[in-house]
Amino acid sequence: PLVLGIESSCDETGIGIVRGTDLLTNTVSSSMEEHVRFGGVIPEIASRAHLDAMVPALQAALAEAGVTLADLDAIAVTSGPGLSGALMVGVSAAKALALATGKPLYAINHLVAHVGVGVLDGGALPENLGALLVSGGHTEILRVADLTSDVELLGSTIDDAAGEAYDKVARILGLGYPGGPAIDRLAREGNPKAIRFPRGLTQPKYMGTAEAPGPHRYDWSFSGLKTAVARCVEQYEAAGQDLPVADIAASFQEAVVDVITAKAVLACTEHGITNLLLGGGVAANSRLRALTEERCSAAGIKLRVPPISLCTDNGAMVAALGAQVVMAGGEPSGIGFGTDPSLPVTSIHVAAAGA
Ligand code: ATP
Ligand code: MG
Ligand code: FE
């Protein structure tokens, strides 16, 4: 099916068009620069930027794909999770389009779309699939029994998301916003073993054993790590010493990536998961990509990592999951649905009210 996807959950206005598992176009316009001076995304500014960007992005995407609205088989839109006002712009646009064209509309979960985008890079997803979702708002390890109907949460962060930790640490180190790409770059010049930062929730009382799992065997915690970096910086400042910024960045990154990959691979091996998809904005991180590859290969897990342009927020991922739902015979969502800023990952697409 030919499906148009609309993404507006944070600061990217994304329009993607796919035919089945083939990507036709992926137009992304970001309001990132408008948030830089505030050091984080300002919801009101993001919403206004979506409003400005939405129709031009739609027109550009249709032109680039060489299709018209009449050609579409369905429209898909992110209805959550994300910023409420930002989501409303995309959902309103999608409802208007659906009403005007009479095309079926599918309300899609942004997090599952970060996984579903995998079909655009290598076709249908394999069986025995797990997904490691590492993004600005989430860090989760999932068992994907069926992408369109059965996703199970095996573990997640109990406080900050990994991307959030990158952004906060970047701010502590004075690297500006967004922090992920800046730390990624700087870490290449530093020594990842310079400072041993904590790996959260790895003590035996949290881990337990395979037979008797502890309360957080597959969970992560990154707030202690962020505090440890802040303490470290304070110590250098108190001593009047120059801050070894690259070493701190590399050591911080190593702590994040080490514990993420170790627990993800553990969850997979203990659940008989033999295929893993890495997704979400932090999947753009070079060290995370490399260590996940290394540890999956050692554990006999086949890894799929979409290209970076499909890992960061975009409309193609929404269209891709929408197309999968259409192909699986999923019910359209009608036009009565609302946005859900905290939609759980197990809610893959929103059924029509009353259905
Ligand atoms: P969610 O998907 O949980 O709703 P989001 O959509 O805001 O959150 P994404 O756009 O998927 O998040 O990811 C953005 C995050 O990815 C930011 O925290 C950013 O710092 C981080 N990020 C982007 N590139 C890199 C990189 N190379 N290394 C580390 N982090 C990165
Ligand atoms: Mg973003
Ligand atoms: Fe995202």
From TrEMBL:
What InterPro entries does this protein's entry cite? Answer: ATPase_NBD, Gcp-like_dom, KAE1/TsaD, TsaD
Q: Which residues are involved in binding Fe cation? A: H110, H114, D313
User: Which GO molecular-function terms appear in the entry?
Assistant: tRNA N(6)-L-threonylcarbamoyladenine synthase activity
Instruction: Output the Gene3D superfamilies linked to this UniProt entry.
Output: 3.30.420.40
| Enzyme Commission numbers on file | 2.3.1.234
Q: Which cofactor does it need?
A: Fe(2+)
Q: What class of enzyme is it?
A: transferase
Q: Where does substrate bind?
A: L133, V134, S135, G136, G137, D167, G180, D184, N285
Catalytic activity, per the record? L-threonylcarbamoyladenylate + adenosine(37) in tRNA = N(6)-L-threonylcarbamoyladenosine(37) in tRNA + AMP + H(+)
**SUPFAM superfamilies in the record:** Actin-like ATPase domain
Q: Where's it found, cell-wise?
A: Cytoplasm
In terms of Pfam families, this protein maps to: TsaD (PF00814)
Q: How is the cofactor bound?
A: Binds 1 Fe(2+) ion per subunit.
Question: Does the keyword section mention Acyltransferase?
Answer: yes
Keywords, A to Z, come to: Acyltransferase, Cytoplasm, Iron, Metal-binding, Transferase, tRNA processing
- Is Cell inner membrane there in the keyword field? no
Indicate the principal place this protein occupies in or around the cell: cytoplasm
Q: Where is the Gcp-like domain?
A: 23-319
* Protein family (similarity comment): Belongs to the KAE1 / TsaD family.
Q: What does this protein do?
A: Required for the formation of a threonylcarbamoyl group on adenosine at position 37 (t(6)A37) in tRNAs that read codons beginning with adenine. Is involved in the transfer of the threonylcarbamoyl moiety of threonylcarbamoyl-AMP (TC-AMP) to the N6 group of A37, together with TsaE and TsaB. TsaD likely plays a direct catalytic role in this reaction.
Q: Which HAMAP family match?
A: TsaD
What's the protein called, per UniProt?
Answer: tRNA N6-adenosine threonylcarbamoyltransferase
